[in-house]
Amino acid sequence: MGILTSTVALLAIPGASAQLNQLAKAAGKLYFGSATDNGELSDTAYVNILKDSNMFGQITPGNGQKWQYTEPSQGSFSYTSGDQIVDFAKANDQIVRCHTLVWYSQLPSWGADGSWSTSQLTSIINTHIANEVGHYKGQCYSWDVVNEALNEDGTYRDSVFYKVLGDSYIPIAFKAADAADPDAKLYYNDYNIEGAGAKQQAAAKIVKLVKDAGARIDGVGMQAHLIVGSVPSQSDLESAMESYLSAGVIELAYTELDIRFNSLPASDSGLQQQAGDYETVTKACLAVDACVGITIWDYTDKYSWIPSVFNGAGAALLWDENFSEKPAYSTVSSVLQAAATGAAGVTSTAKSTVQASTTPATSAKPTASSGDCAISQWGQCGGEGFTGCTACASGYTCSYSNDYYSQCL
Ligand SMILES: *[C@@H]1O[C@H](CO)[C@@H](O)[C@H](O)[C@H]1NC(C)=O
Q1: How many CB atoms neighbour CB 152 within 10 A?
Q2: What's the superkingdom here (predicted)?
């Protein structure tokens, strides 16, 4: 918990030219970070900013750890893309938010189209997570274990996972991730859960669902893909964070922040509005101790995902397409600097003081059974922390892969 307490007094206050991660840390946060992607790493001008750990203390792989890349055919794993980003971060003394394990999108066709039985899909999830989290064990500050399980009205998305397993796929995924890397923080991650609403309430229920199932969930990741002029108020942002802490997580993060214009080009006054919107989000994170950091979803408009997904929209980030810092950059920097020096402007507007709760609940785990069960080929059947069935279906043997993972082969 030490990382969540304010360390302002212990750190030298960076000077006026200090950069975002330095300032965020001096203000008591764990990091200021950016997502990146493999194709961009050949752009020298881009890399020169990204690799500076004073600017970005944390990196998120935008795509390389997604299921379509890591298990393109069943039981066959590839970590080339993910490793490139993780190795980049390591080489530059940056921590990694690993992203993401169970998501309805960017699934390989074999997984998305399968008409699986409940036991088959449970085994597929367990195998995928055990392999991927096992591969990155010790290298991820956190994992986005389940991504975007909710519709806008707070009901569950009709993904292959939900169709076959109902909401039980969520605790199944968290248990598998916990077993494979007990030290990584485990997050539920979604968008449009930053302010009040049906989806925010449903995200808080997911926290309870996972905990009630006896699984570990440490954090809620608020993606924060926002729109200029339509950002929730600071107090609404803080209230949503408070709802997740009340539901039982111990930390929070803005994990994919960008604030887009719906039409371009942006005017000067629009850029000022965008700066104010970034200020609101930054101040909300600063005001809540449990908010460990902010990650922007890439740092330059040159490599933003927005124009390819939202027609005509863009200019959502802190640097423009030519790597010039925008007004929003200066504002975020000033707000962090003010917090680092204890100046005005970073007080909570929430009614009550938000504090990280004590320790995560350690519910009793069910004991392993080998009675009536039978794990199919590729499924997990053992490993440290594993509490499921340990018997393989006829014709398969439970084979040791590593201390955290045995599978039926
Ligand atoms: C980036 O540079 C190009 C070439 O000089 C210019 O046409 C463009 O307007 C610049 N973009 C911004 C946002 O200033």
Answers
A1: 12
A2: Eukaryota
